[in-house]
Amino acid sequence: MDFKLDKSQKEIQKAAWEFARGEFDKEVIIELSKEQKIPEDIIKKSGELGFIGIHYPEDVDGGGMGLLEHILVCETFCRKDSTLGSALMFSGYAAECILRNGDKRLKENFLPQIVEGQLTSTGAFLEPKQGYDLTKISTTAVHDGDDWIINGEKALVPSGNIAGIYVVLCRTETNSAPSTSGMSLILVEAEREGISIAPVGEKLGGRMMPFADITFENVRVPGSNLIGKQGSGYALTQNFFMENRIQIAGQALGTAQGAFERALDYVKQREQFGKKLAQFQITRHKLADMASKIEAARYMTYHAAWCFDNRKIEPQLASMAKLTAARAAMEVSDEAIQLLGGYGYMTEYEVEHFFRDAKQAEIFQGPPAIQKDIIADGIIGKLK
């Protein structure tokens, strides 16, 4: 099995790196992170150059490539800066639900704007006090003529205060069995009347992608805003989560690589007792362990993305990729801080925010325990 990237994929990596080197300004990133803001001009530039929609088809102005190419861009951006990189690549969060399941009208009306960086999307899936247990959602959508009327609360919605559209998981059938068969996905434009947004405050990591709680009070949307078939929302959401976990693995992979490179540069320059830190065996062994963890995560992540593109993906493989890459990001960024000593704790040296962003990658779309449950379900199967 050949794991080498082809010429086109290498060119994508190179183009993404050149863009990041030219547009990612460290001082600007630090300030915007403090303010929990994202530079809209960079999103638009990224979209115009085809990075955001690289895995979307050409008929909606995308690059016509696959998830693997998207992962390459995500890894490269996060390698340069994990905070801005992840914010750029998740500016179209949950739009894959429209891409994979929406009808022609929804795709034509919204996807080109997302691909071009002109519109931010997000998913409103979780609810207060329910964690990742989507079987208990209470947000409802009921028919009123040709429209849907939506009522309910959604919690921890990524970029909820700046998104132009929400992909909302609603209960559209109250007496269905099992309960998951009574859920649907509905697209809701942010300017609809009856939507209230409450920022949830500062976060540890991913500070350019602020979270918000969203309340829907008698929000009316056209019936044609239904994504996929009525009653299929739970299954479609789980399919999106599977794809998104591979994307998060790409984010974590780039985060680990970025932290590693900064630590490597530091130990090659810093001297103690007349020797470079990189000449001490303990430092060499730490670097060897860090590099090995990153490479293992890279193979797992690329393999999962390739399987997705070739329709050979299983939920447990996506969870394995996320679990492995997020663990590598946490461990590598933690070791990078240790190698830099006191400087590793300082914002100017960057590794501290790589560590914070690694934590977001670890818990976003399900913390390690949830990933292990998914993996175990795939391994064990149904017991008689």
Descriptive report:
The protein has 384 residues and is of the alpha+beta class. It has three domains: 7-115, Butyryl-Coa Dehydrogenase, subunit A, domain 1, CATH 1.10.540.10; 121-231, Beta Barrel (Butyryl-CoA Dehydrogenase, subunit A, domain 2), CATH 2.40.110; 235-380, Butyryl-CoA Dehydrogenase, subunit A, domain 3. It contains twelve helices and ten strands. The chain has helices at 7-23, 26-35, 40-48, 67-80, 82-89, 95-101, 104-115, 233-269, 281-309, 315-340, 351-363, 368-380; strands spanning 121-124, 140-144, 147-158, 165-171, 183-189, 195-199, 211-222, 226-227, 271-272, 275-276. The chain has a four-stranded mixed β-sheet with strand order 1-4-5-8. A four-stranded antiparallel β-sheet has the order 2-3-7-6, with no helix packed on it. Helix 10 runs antiparallel to helix 11 (351-363). The model has no long low-confidence stretch (mean pLDDT 95).
The CATH class name of the largest domain reads Mainly Alpha
Gross morphology: globular
Straight-line N-to-C gap: 36 Å
Number of helices: 12
The number of domains:
3
- Please tell me the overall pLDDT: 95
| Radius of gyration, taken over Cα atoms and rounded to an integer in Å | 21 Å
Number of strands: 10
Q: State the share of residues found in helices, binned by percent.
A: 40-55%
Residue runs with pLDDT of under 50 for 5 or more positions = none
> Pairing-aware structural class of the strands and helices?
alpha+beta
Strand order, largest beta sheet: 1-4-5-8
CATH superfamily of the largest domain: Butyryl-CoA Dehydrogenase, subunit A, domain 3
Strand percentage = 15-25%
CATH topology of the largest domain: Butyryl-CoA Dehydrogenase, subunit A, domain 3
Largest sheet: 4 strands, mixed
